[in-house]
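Researcher:
Attend to token order:
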Amino acid sequence: MNRTRCDQTPAWGALQSAFDATGRAFDVRTAFAADPQRFEVFSQSAPYVFADLSKNRIDGATEALLLALAQQTGLAAHRDAMFAGDKINTTEDRQVMHWLLRNPPLALMNKAQPALQNVASELSAVHTTLDAMLAYAETVRADDGITDVVNIGIGGSDLGPQMAVLALDEFVLPGKRFHFVSNVDGHELAAVLRRVKPEHTLFLVASKTFTTIETMTNAHSAKAWFEAQGGTDIARHFAALTTNVAAANAFGISTTFGFWDWVGGRYSVWSAIGLPLAIAIGAQGFRDFLAGAHDMDEHFRTAPLAQNLPVRLGLLDVWYRNFHGFTSRSVAPYHAALKRYPAYLQQLEMESNGKRVDAHGQALPFATSLVVWGEPGTNGQHAYFQMLHQGTDVVPVEFVAVKTPKHSLPGHHTLLLANAVAQAQALLLGKADDGGHKHFTGNRPSTFLLLDDLSPASLGALIALQEHRVFVSGSVWGINSFDQWGVELGKVLAKEVDVRLDSGDFSALDGSTAGLLARLRQVR
């Protein structure tokens, strides 16, 4: 399909003119004073999520220009191509269909989407695999002999299920503990193995190719530990989430669940990679997780661009990155269970949109991908919020809060929500002080996402919202958000460095690498 890069559209120049005229000096406090309806205009509901965008440095005229930019770059057509199963991952010649993993079967849909006829066979295979995976999850849940589940993966095979299992801790089956091992640093695996017993542990090896070096190093070490502890039934205590069934069988694993090459790692929690979550919250809980995401998919697919929350968030990211020059976004989830949510979004945003060339391989003359970082509130308030309020860099903040808690401890949740709202208010209003040290400039932008509760369905919707938001900014920038070649080079070089570190041959290396390897060999 034909895509027009953002800087080649009339709207791009119009946005630059608007920024120079009014955007650079825009003060949200003045905008609120001038428009009593600002909150209503710049807030909206989407499935399971209410979003307040009113504290951002944006007005109606700017948002109209951003929507024109979306139209002129062909965002809607690009979105529709994804949902039609076109190969929009052009550098890998692949479809992008993680959304299909949470699509109901055609027979259960109230009105079939014509585009789904193009991918009907894939959808049937998705549900065959899903049914088998969930049946296995229920078997594990019913097995009182399995008390610990250890997921061995890395990247999307770790961040997604780990984040979701922690987020939905209140729904986890009592009597089952979940552990996640991703780092090739043996300290991580060793710490988990000290806490489990072989006869009560199920290991899940998550690697699409069954060749990922970090994952397979950990998997072989786990297997060696299991056998050294007297374990003999590899088939019962190990399962694989992979497409390489032959390699899994050679390892000794007979239970495998696969997925497809159109599932990117950072979009894979909806697939068999989500097995730890399915074991944790059960088959119906996992189906609710998928259903919440599907509801957000339908919002993104069908809502007009001006009332489309992923579109509004993605365009806001473009406005901040390319015109205001903001380089990062801080994510502040005011719910302790969302402790891994910022890390999950780091991969989603920066692995997707951290690109320096467009979809045609041409160098970009503008910036992409904000840096995403954060910690749960209220912890972050006592760590980095000093910089957010009084630092020299302006960092947009995205608050996430949950209206209804799952605990019954009096006073805690009201105080938590009060802190979230107050921090957003303080960033906006600031505080004058002649002495300087206690002066807060204010006019620091933030977005506030509010969920009624934290449930499988609402978490699914929240994640899908962020996926589509990343799609929007990447589409406008004209890049391919679905490859990750930048992950490869260091991994390739690590294999060579590993051999050289063992052999002591440092010839033809740069001086720094040779010097470091020589020093490392001295202390081995």
